[in-house]
Amino acid sequence: MGSPEQFVSSYSVPFESRAILLESLVSNNLHSSLPAEAKEFAHHVRFEGSSLPCLPINWRLAESAASLKALEAVLINVLISRKYGQGPFPVTIDTDHAQLFFMSSLLIEANPDPASPVQPTPIRELTEKYSHFFPNRDLHQMSSSPFRKAVTNI
Description:
GO terms for molecular function: transferase activity. This protein is mainly alpha-helical. The chain has helices spanning 4-10, 13-25, 38-42, 61-84, 95-98, 123-129, 146-150; strands at residues 45-48, 91-94. It has a two-stranded parallel ribbon. Helix 4 (61-84) links the parallel strand 1 and strand 2 (91-94).
């Protein structure tokens, strides 16, 4: 099967992200509702970044996040093409940046002031303010203590 060192030296997050986009997303029969141009426009997406993931997270997070961002770019290219008759435009996805998307929840700001720097709104304040829209579904109190927040239920 080979050593872990051989696997690590031959693995590439950008290459795997491209494979996910082309094979698992735009060429997958389960996604037959995608626009007809999606397959062609997907070839205008380029992936760049380090070969190995920056963050030690399982689930191939870097590859998944990058390929979903690429699909988003493909669909935007389709919209631009249909509405304005332009494109497809080349798109570059940085896999190192794409995998940081999960940290964006830490920067959420409700009703931001455009003139000031980002001031994250405390989650507890948002929870109380929007609880009628998003009721608490933490049935097993996974966020009841720092210890429970740190463990996973995988």
